[in-house]
Amino acid sequence: MEWLQVADVPVADGTVTVRHDGHVSTTFTNRSDETLLWEARFLGEHRWLEINGRRLPGRPEVIDGVRHTVVKAPVRPGRTAGAKILP
Fold this sequence. Notes:
The chain is mostly beta strands. The protein is built from no helices and 9 strands.
């Protein structure tokens, strides 16, 4: 998969758009009137992730029997957040 996007998904009092570029990068756009807590997930175990230009440690988690690396980030109204896997 090169990329995949779901747009204008109803959440809270607005919508969100999520785009995945391959298995290494994703963006989340908050089009609501409130701050939303985004949980970015990547398949496999990765020590570091980058969220909005900040290097953060990934948290390993097993979801439905599959290993993921997870990080949470608040996304303010009208903003887009980005996450990617770092080497």
